Amino acid sequence: MWNRALLGIVVGVFSCVAVAGGWRLPNGYFIPAKMPMTLVFPRPDSETAPWARQRRAYADGTVQYRVPIVVQGGAYPFHYSLDSGPSGMTIGSDIGNPEYGIVTWTPTAAQIRTAAYPVTVTVTDQEGHSVTATWSVQATTAGFVFVDPKAAVNGNGSKGSPFNSVAPLFVLHGTTGPYAGDIVYFRSGTTVLSGPEALGNVQLQSDGNPAVWLGYPGENATIDFSHSKVLVDKQDDVFIGGLRFVNARNDVPNAHFFFFNQNYPQSRVTFFEDRFDSIGRGTVGSDNPAAITLFNPGALRKYLAIVDCSLDHFSAPLVDAYAISYAVIEGNTLYSGNVPTVDQGIFLKSDIQDVSVRRNTSLSQPFGYGAIEVYQQAQRFTNANIEVAYNLVRATNPRQPAFVYEWTGVGGGANVDPQIYVYRNTFSGWIGGLDDFPYTVWEENNVLIDDSGQTAKFNVSAAGGKTVKSVNNLTGTSADGLIDADGKLIGAASQYRGTRGYEISVGVNPLSAPTWR
Amino acid sequence: MGGRNLLILLVWSAFFLGGCRNASVSSAPTSSPAAAPVPAGTSSGTPSPTVGAATLRWSAPTTRLDNTPVSLSEIAGYRLYYGPTATDTPSFVNINDGTATQYTINLPAGSYYFRISAIDTQGFEGEKSVALQKTVN
Fold first, then answer.
1. Fewer beta carbons below 10 Å: N end or C end of chain B?
2. A4-140 in CATH: which number?
3. DSSP SS3 for A473
4. Entry pTM
């Protein structure tokens, strides 16, 4: 359980002095940190495998190295500064920058050298606390393999002579393939996934197959999953970025694109700028379908990031998560769901600790259990420290749930008042589950457009469980005209812009404090 | 903005309802005292607590947070926060005068902490001051 005293102690370990700068928001325009900042990606070299995505950059002057800096907790929005790195490397420092929080670099052949380049990025939050990401990156052309479905004949996997299928890449689990530890670039066009496992699946296990898959920058690389899915067993440092995945197979129980199984707590898993398109729920046993499902291995995974991804044409969530800790689900967009069968968009199911669900957008039709559902199953552990912040759920029908709390006593774990913080969201739709949710929740500075007539909302008296600590929320119905089609506050409600709901004021240079005399 | 429950803005405001009886009233040293904000839900049948006054004086900020200079004409007013502890000042009054340097507020007798922020002509609130303790009696 978290509390303010502990926050002060832990923050002190990570913090530096407050920074006065144009990126700082005035008091009231951000929410003080609910939990300390934790660096999720990239982790230091001492923790990562040599093939970890951030540690290798293709250096021929044409391929952009692109790495997000992902931080859990803190007082959002953050300020990013690149303190050291190779020539030409940059980062988007402040929110509103298209490359916000993303390190980019296009190394040239002249930058190839034996030693790796050290990189340091400092991330500072609105309260002046900071964390530092340090890692090294090698500029090289070694350790990469290329797949181009347009290639006329099968090449050797080099950039100049790519493979035209994935057949050479993947070997049966328990063996080590020729491209283990390589970074795979997929070129434009549609590559059909097929693997050597049962049902044509691909398995990532014990470092035997490539675990870093990237779409070639600036191209639309698509992988067709209609004959295969990816099973992840004992495998860390998985990075899947810049790819479009289509047609999750629906002829098997629980449709998935990526399934992280229950045999091992896979750590340091990142999905970045991926697009998932067309996924059903599968045949039987369809209780855990998702584009990305992380099943329960009986130990908590560490450092999961699902950032700037999208989901379209779906009946299953973007993510269905068990047993995750220090995780960030941020900047993702849910487009058109296949109503009425969509249950959730982002589903935090069981054993969830230290997780930020931040700045996601749902443009989808209504969900049966909310675009975001915090489902407090505790199979093995307690749930703890969950924040849902700055999200926009813009359902076309605000009679359906936008956000849902749920709980169950299933399993051997036990919740100990999990500390759930819901703040600065704009929800078009009602809040579900508060009527019997037995734990304390904090709801601050949200905007809620609710046409359902439900009484719970942010109403303390309507909660049947413990305590709802509700403050500064702005509620109304769609007839009140509080928000526009983009969820932005309008009319008389515009006075709350930047202090209620998902909108973040940018470029405000606040006044210093008056002094008493 | 019609006649329904349009905006339900929940603001902590009832902390000073309890206690504070049998306190004396001080004379306000300056003019134009503000009326004490009436907490939501206050019944007209409840006996009124003893009311005193506190006068707060401040100097306007001369810079923004990035240290760029700011003139008095860029300040539209102030927001004076108050509450029972230095970290719990949930109530506020707006002072819609950027040239103001003092303010007198009427409150039920007791100990209060005050913080103040400036609001610029764009409507953005600045950094809050450190807390100042005063006893109203």
1. N
2. 2.60.40.10
3. coil
4. 0.77
